[in-house]
Structure formats: C-alpha cells, structure tokens
Amino acid sequence: AVRLQHGVSGLEPLAWSEDHRVSVSTARSIAVLEQLSDVHSGGQEMVIHRTAVGPKKEVAECKEKFASSVDPTVSQTFMLDRVFNPEGKSLPPMRGFKYSSWSPLGCDANGRCLLAALTMDNRLTVHANLNRLQWVQLVDLTEIYGERLYEASYKLSKADTPRGELGDFSEFQRRHSMQTPVRMEWSGICTTQQVKHNNECRDVGSVLLAVLFENSNIAVWQFQLPFLGKESITSCNTIESGINSPSVLSWWEYEHNNRKMSGLIVGSAFGPVKILPVNLKAVKGYFTLRQPVVLWQEMDQLPVHSIKCIPLYHPYQKCSCSLVVAARGAYVFWCLLLISKAGLNVHNSHVTGLHSLPIVSMTADKQNGTVYTCSSDGKVRQLIPIFTDVALKFEHQLIKLSEVFGSVRTHGIAVSPCGAYLAVITTEGMTNGLHPVNKNYQVQFVTLKTFEEAAAQLLESSVQNLFRQVDLTDLVRWKILKDKHIPQFLQEALDKKIESCGSTYFWRFKLFLLRILYQSMQKAPSEVMWRPSHEDAKILISDSPGMGSTEDDQEEGTSKQASKQSLCDTGKGMDIDDTAEDSLPQSSDIGGREPMEEKLLEVQAQIEAVEMHLTREHMKRVLGEVYLHTWITENTSIPTRGVCDFLMSDDGYDDRTARVLIGHILKKMNKQTFPEHCSLCKEILPFTDRKQAVCSNGHIWLRCFLTYQSCQSLVYRRCLLHDSIARHPTPEDPEWIKRLLQGPCTFCDSPVF
C-alpha cells in the first residue's frame, strides 16, 4: 500500500502506463508511482519510485461583468457553472486534476511514455520524464488551441457566419464550451512519410492525441516522434461529433488483412455511443470508416462513464475483432465489431447484475480481454469474455476487497500492462454503521497471477523485453527471494529455450534470475549503514596508556557496551538472543558459512559468464554496424580494433560468425588501428576492459556500453537499474551511431537516462 498525500479528484483517477508507471489524479498534483524490479535489493517488498507532476485581462473583465449582472439568469448561471467560474467564489475552489492519460511506449526522447494531464480548471498539458525522477512540461495545448481559435475568429470553418462579441453571454458560453476539454486519449503509434530536401521520402513515427470538448467537437493533434515540444506538433484537425453532452471517448483501432483501420468511439451522458471516422493525410497504411457507426442509440439517461477497446482474435471466425466495453450506470455495455466480406458486423448487449451501485471505474487487460469493474462499496468484478459461434458471452466473478483490506471504499482501479497486478485506490469504509472521521487515501496493489503463470508468460512472451514485463518479473523476483532458490521447472525450461533458439532475451532472463538468487543468498547487514559506530570509543578506553583499570572496571565497561549494543539492536527490531548468537563464532556456524560462500562464488561466476556472453553478442552487433556504415580507412570513432581484439582474446570463445565479421572489418581497415586517446594526457587508451579504459598515466574513463567508446566527459547517462553507463550523442555523430545510442540496456532492457 502507498499512502497518498492528498485526496483523489476527477473521474477515473488511476491510470497504468505501458512503461509501468501509475498516475493518480489528486487535489494538488498527479502522483506518479513507478514500479521497478530491482536486482540490487534483497527485500521482498515491491520497489516503487514516487514523483509528482503540478487568464487574460479581457476575459477577467467579462467574468466580473457576468458575476455582477442584475439579471439573475446570467449571474446565477455564471456563478454556479464551474466551467466559466473554476475559482468558485463562494463555492470551494477547483483544485487538482480531472483526468490523466498515458501515451504508448516510445513517444518521448528516452523512448518512454508521455503524460497528458487535464486540470480541474480545464488546462491541458503534456509532460515528459526526461531526466531521472524529474518531470518537464513540454507543451500547453489549451493555450495553443486558444490561439488557433482566436486567429480563426472562433469559427470552426470558413463557411461559418461571424458570431457576436465576447461581451454577449451566449457567445461567452459558446467560446468556453469549444475550449473546455472533457477527456483526452492517445492513439497507437503510426507511420507518416516525410519528404526531404532532395525529394526522398523517409518514414517518421507519429502519435495522435484526441481531445473531446464540451461542445461535442474533437480536436485531433498529430505529434512527430520523439515529441520534444511545440515544434513537434504536425497538425491539429477539428471533428464535429454531433453528440449531445459528450462524456467520454476512446480510440478504435482495428487491423484486418494487414490494413489498419481507426476511428473514435464517443459516449454521451444521455446514453448513446457511436464511432466517428478520422481522416488523416500521409499516414502509411491507415484507413478509416466511410461514415459514423452507431453502437447504441437509445437515449435511456444512463451516462457512459468509461470506454475500453480491446483487440482480440475470434477462434470461430478465424479473424481479428474488436471488443468495445462501456460502463453505463451499474451495467456494462459491450459491442463486438468484426469485418467480413459483407462489411462491418456489430453485435451488442448489456451485462447486468454486476453491481448494486454505479460503476466508478473500469479497466481492461489487453493481453486476454479480461475486464475489471468496481463500485464505491469495495466490490470488484472480473469479466472474462468467452466466444460463441455468433458473438460472445461473459463469465464474471466477484472480488471482495473487504476480505483482503477490511471495510473499504474504492475510488478507482487499473490493471498492469501484463495483467499481474491490480492497483486500487481505497479509503476507510464504514465501521459499525459509522463513516470514518478522516479519510486516508491509499493505492493498494493486489496480485492477479501466480508465480507459475508469470514465469510461463515470460518464457512464451512475444515481446521479448524484460522492461516491458516488469510486473511479471516482480512476481518471479518475490518468489526467488522468498524461497532462496530458482525453481527447477523454470531453470530447465529456460535452458531448453536457450539451447533451441539462443535469443539474447532468454540470456537476459537468466541473468535476472541469477542476480536475484545472488541477492537472496546475501546476509542482511546487522548494522544500519548510516548509524555511527561505537567501536572506536571502546578501543580508546581500553588501550589508552596511563589508565589503570581493575577487573571490576573492565567488567563494568563491558556490561555498558553490551547494554548499549542490546538497546541499539532492540531499536532495529532485532532479538537480543539472535544478536548474541551472531556475534559468537560457533563451530557449527563456521561449518555452515563455507558452503554458502562457495555457492555465492559459484553464482557470481555464472553471472559474469552470462554478462560476458551478452557483451560479446552486442559487440558483434556494433561491429556489424561499423562494417555496413564505414568506408575504407575511415575513422569511425568507435574503437573497432580494440573490440575485435577483445572478442578474439579468449581462446575458448569460438564463434564462426564473429571470426568472419572480424576478418572482413580488418581487411577493410587496411592495418590501421585508429586508437582512442586520453583527453588529459593524450596517451593511448587500450581496450582491455569492457567497462572502463585506463591510460598509461592512470587516468580512468568509463566505457559506453552501447558503442564501447570511452565517456571522456563529466556528463553521461545511466540505465534505470544502474547497470551500465552510456554517453550522450554529439552533433558530429553519424545517424547510425545515434541510432545505437538510443538502444536500451543490454543486460536488463531498461531505458537510459
């Protein structure tokens, strides 16, 4: 459980990103909780890093005019409407965040997720975590969109007739509703074609952000990747949805016969749900609908609270399909979309009998299509879709959080990317029929998978990236730290995978398991590292010359030291008897230490062997890039000769691919070595170690693990788990070196900061 400093705010206050960060919208900021599968920690608890993300003169004059109007229909409407009047005056101030949304993985400069944040006073901004544990606002979309509307005289199209002035209350309402965001959602990453100066076309990644406004219009922003700020905005198109009182939207993305189709699903507070076509230019392989498709048209006054779109495979129709689920009151509306030769087939229905209270939050596991819903009374429902010949049905079961946490109220849920954890925002529930005096908001993490399920999913993963599966590796980490050994079935299955395919992913998985095993075998330190030691004072008293001491004095001094030690240990939560046993070197203890030390040395040797294998594989990749992108006798700035010699220095390493590649490179280099030189003394830096370079004068430089160049500067980057060092790209670097420097850690797949 992680306690929040402020109460939650907004609708759907919890969101879990693809790079394993949980955002919680609170009354003061957005709390970001990042889950790490730390290989350097021996504790069994989850490792979480915590961070936080935080009008014009004419408008102010008009607000004052409407607030003091003698016409009560104007003044009261203005004062009670939180859109026009977020400060509230006599009402409590509108502080905090209304909604937050994570982009797909690979959108910022570090290849991670962007965070779009909507405040209670209707300001939409985009943030990025560029430096470790530091958030930076990249762009204020509310300001930019307002400038665009001002330049267009607040007309959506050129055919629109001019409206009244800002001093007119109806015009004031219209302008506010067309600039007040309700929700925003990111699309998947798509590819656009960019024409260069020499008329060549190159593929550029882009992402779309759809923003739903109160007047039912939708602004679709297109950003070029990596998103760096205002200069990365490619376009902004406005779509008229025609839905009254819009409440929520979601992207519909469907792949059929290698053709990607996309649209926007919009829900209304009155009940209807429909998909709108989104027309985009210069997007490779992108298609959309010809006309809007109505999924539910009844105006039954059941507001649409949340919409999720899940891509699935239909086992009977043998094709891909889309499952759209929407929370409407206490019910779940579902719609199955499937494209056949006859066109778009739509099957829809409602799942009833789930909750006695309205659904406050809904989340979906996109790996298997499982949907989770919760109401405020602490009840969570798990809905598992089961396909039939025609459409599908849901099996649902109740998860009572009260059995785990006691009496609680729930405010939001989110499932982790691989479905291993469920994050739940809770406060105290009723006790003996009474509400709690104070509310303590907490984010609770509940496991949804067993260790065996997580291990099997990691072994059969199509992603083959440990960082993108942190929630699964965290369950494996907990099991090994608890049992202090790697389960036999997992060890055998992993060895078979390595023998059959030899992918570096399975070698990295093996390295992860060995590192956790090494941590589980380490003895916990008996002394707290930051606490000052009293040993020096004890030595000075007993050994100082000219101080005579009787046996009684010595005994008294010893008893004082023992009492201090026992008090110290008691403060640390240790048993005095256990401490005494640890401090006395018994014969049985000595006998038991030797095999443990031997096991530690054995595991350490295995870790070094796996690290060396991964290093050699990456060296081969770097040498392949060098061979493909350099001309004869060209200095690449990469210590090519040193890397070649390092690969061939071990007689036991016999890789025919590496030998052939090195032979071609040495032939291309034509006996030239192009050595690196120390920037302090100009001496040659020999390549004898993959981690550091030491010149003849003793100057030590760390080596970049991505290019094996020496980092001869005071500023460099580190991977998320502090595994490796990488240098920053420079303007002189060619494109292929910059591409190498964008890679993740070769040991743990973590991004580099």
Automatic annotation (TrEMBL):
Domain Transcription factor IIIC 90kDa subunit N-terminal intervals: 16-449
DUF5921 domain location? 450-527
Q: Where is the Transcription factor IIIC putative zinc-finger domain?
A: 670-720
Q: Which GO terms describe its molecular function?
A: histone acetyltransferase activity
User: What cellular-component terms does GO give this entry?
Assistant: transcription factor TFIIIC complex
Quote the biased-composition stretches of kind Polar residues, using this chain's numbering. Answer: 559-568
Could you state one GO biological process linked to this protein?
transcription initiation at RNA polymerase III promoter
Pfam families, alphabetized: DUF5921 (PF19336), TFIIIC_delta (PF12657), zf-TFIIIC (PF12660)
Record region (Disordered): 540-593
Protein origin, superkingdom: Eukaryota
What name is this protein filed under?
TF3C4 factor
Which gene produces this protein?
Gtf3c4
